[in-house]
Amino acid sequence: MLIRKMDLNLVIYNDGFNLDKSIEKLIQSCHKFDYKRIALAVQIVATGKDVKIPIPPTIKLRDNLKNIKLYTRLTVQVEDSNSLFHLSKNENLKHYDILAIEPMNEKILNYLNGGNFEFDILTFSSIDSSIVNMIKKANFSLPISKGIGIEINYSNCLSSSSQRRQSIAFGQMLVDKTRSKNIILSSGTSIATSIRSPRDVIYIGLLFGLEENQSKRSLYRNTEAVINHSELRRNINTSIIVADDLIENNNDDNNNESIYDELCAMDENLQTSKKSNKMKRPSSSIEPNQPMIEAISEAKKQKT
């Protein structure tokens, strides 16, 4: 199996798209560290029915960057299940390869952990006390069994010393709650200079309590699993849409069949009526309505 270095959270949108030069610098920095696959992330906040998803920009890579595979990622901060419903119905969602959800309270985290919504990555950018408390009570067994990635963003460790301590403690708690399963390590940054080499990221994983082989897996195999999960999710969604169309078309066919049967029955009644009228009044038989005859004839042609 070919193992590729990946960073699945390079932020290019947060209340507005970054400049093209900033995006190019992110990609160039990843290329310098030999990352083969990267996800350009759009971050939004979903509130009730107000779910506005921007269409991701088209990125044209220079020739020296052609060996990098780009993915589009949507990261959504969510507070209630109603937002998830409207998110799933948004037409612009189809423009994204990866769907990451950031729960903002315990209720929505439990909803997500209950398997009630299909997505690819469970992520946490905020590490305040309320988020820490909800992580302590959470049960991640179901999303782990479904192959959903549990993301730790290491860029928080590159800030102030107090932020670094909080980030490391949060990462250790998340690793403990998940038993090191499905953990993926991402940069979670929009700044090119904050991207670290795969070797450095593996060492950062050790600070979070991962063993060396687990830290390597979080950067390689687990990220690969997320890509596979996203492809499966999108294929299933496409299949459901196609199935719905087939059911709708089948219902139309059934309706046509019913109309045809009704027209045939009317035809028989008309023919019977015509014969009866000829027997009773041979000199002035009543002809059936011409438009009705034409409709019946057309229906029979379509049937054959």
How would you sum up this structure, described in words?
The two termini are 54 Å apart. The radius of gyration is 30 Å and the shape is globular. Mean pLDDT is 84; it is low at 280-289. Helices cover 50% and strands 15% of the residues. The protein has ten helices and seven strands. β3, α2 and β4 form a beta-alpha-beta unit. It is α/β, with parallel strands linked by helices and 304 residues long.
Which key terms come to mind for this protein?
globular; 304 residues; TIM Barrel; single chain; seven-stranded parallel beta sheet; alpha/beta
Binned, the helix content reads 40-55%
Order of helices and strands: EHEEHEHEHHEHEHHHH
**Second-tier CATH architecture of the largest domain:** Alpha-Beta Barrel
How many separate structural domains?
A: 2
User: What does the radius of gyration come to?
Assistant: 30 Å
The CATH topology assignment of the largest domain is TIM Barrel
Determine the structural class based on helices, strands and strand pairing. Answer: alpha/beta
The CATH H-level homologous superfamily of the largest domain: Metal-dependent hydrolases
Low-confidence stretches: 280-289
Distance between the termini: 54 Å
DSSP helical segment count: 10
Average pLDDT value? 84
Topology (SSEs and partners):
Elements: E1 6-14, H1 20-32, E2 37-46, E3 69-78, H2 81-88, E4 98-103, H3 106-113, E5 121-122, H4 129-137, H5 141-145, E6 149-153, H6 161-178, E7 183-186, H7 198-207, H8 212-219, H9 221-280, H10 290-303
Parallel strand pairs: 1-2, 2-3, 3-4, 4-5, 5-6, 6-7
Subcellular location: Nucleus
Keywords: tRNA processing
Organism: Dermatophagoides pteronyssinus (European house dust mite)
